């Protein structure tokens, strides 16, 4: 594409993006299509001759956009929000244009060093100690895999050469509410499904330290080798936070790697009055958090903080002759700290976010999201038709429709029907989970563009659909 043509189409796309980001209500939040519908609208075979770019853009608008669930929509209140802020979009555009591959320092010095600075800036905003080294990868799931691989290398130093086949069983400990990515990582690392020990939670859905201590002592007596403890700061279903100081004490006592999954709640450390919720995470060996969840950075951008980066290198460093350079002794080659050789310039979009909003601007927006969640929780508490199912610590409200005349199973069905009807409206999108065997609803405030009116709209729609049940 000639530069002058690129400029014309580029301006058109930027205009479309600008209009799209300001188009609250133009599209339904949740895609209103059936499985296979988008595919059926697309050509079954690739074109042999190139097509006009204008036609490609038209097909994008007519065939792709109607099949999108719009995570940027201010009525997106499901899962944990993922907002693409304007400065991050522009940073991502530039990163795509320069097409840096920061596999080793020499292949992209700026991308390597901007990543280090950006991760360290965020570390400072979170109040974490300076001995944490930060790395930016795609998702918390992969970062967790890398952290647990480092923990495994530390617990089984002989496995790097000979594998795990003739060694004792290894164990990773986590709450029953831990994210499924932990189990996937443990299986991938060769510890098997039994390599995870899911521990019971207390009445606030937090790991029980006594249960953790008992499990470790039982495994040690049986010859099982403890590998790591995964503590969660912001569980997926209810955003509960494990008792991090007590877990840190146990890990230190037994010399076990402590990993904190703070994919959702970690960025709350930017807000000083919320930072005490995370007390104890500064004692961890590794921490993961997602900038693409609550830090207004588009997919994908996740951070791994590790106070033992040499353990990551022990697990992953394997340098072929063609990638050895003179600078390796004085510069960090990012390929040595994970599986991927190719590494895109993810740091640039986060660098733009941190500079554009600043720590104060980020804290104000996170604080407002928590206020909106508390407001919604107050409406739930004041209603005879609804009940809160967990404490509202941050931006997530977990609640349930109730009717004394319905049994538990019929109440589950009623909640499911309400959720389906609310989401079918196209105005807002909420999600659900299962808590203690019961179907419950989740409203998560974390989108940069969500305001009071959108949360109030969700409440009115819930009340309307609940009234229709009667």
Topology:
Layout: H1 3-21, H2 37-41, H3 53-64, H4 86-98, H5 109-126, E1 133-137, H6 140-155, H7 159-162, E2 170-175, H8 180-188, E3 196-199, H9 209-221, E4 225-232, H10 244-254, E5 257-261, E6 286-290, H11 291-294, E7 302-306, H12 309-316, H13 347-381, E8 386-388, E9 396-401, H14 408-424, E10 431-435, E11 438-444, H15 452-469
Parallel strand pairs: 2-3, 2-4, 4-5, 5-6
Antiparallel strand pairs: 1-7, 6-7, 8-9, 9-11, 10-11
Helix pairs in contact: 4-13, 5-13, 6-8, 6-12, 13-15, 14-15
What does it look like?
The protein is an alpha/beta fold. The chain has a domain at 101-344: Type I PLP-dependent aspartate aminotransferase-like (Major domain) (Aspartate Aminotransferase, domain 2, 3-Layer(aba) Sandwich). It is 43% helix and 13% strand. The chain has 15 helices and eleven strands. The longest helix has 35 residues, at 347-381. The radius of gyration is 24 Å and the shape is globular.
Short recap of the structure:
This protein has 470 residues and is of the alpha/beta class. The protein is built from 15 helices and 11 strands. It has a domain at 101-344: Aspartate Aminotransferase, domain 2, CATH 3.40.640.10.
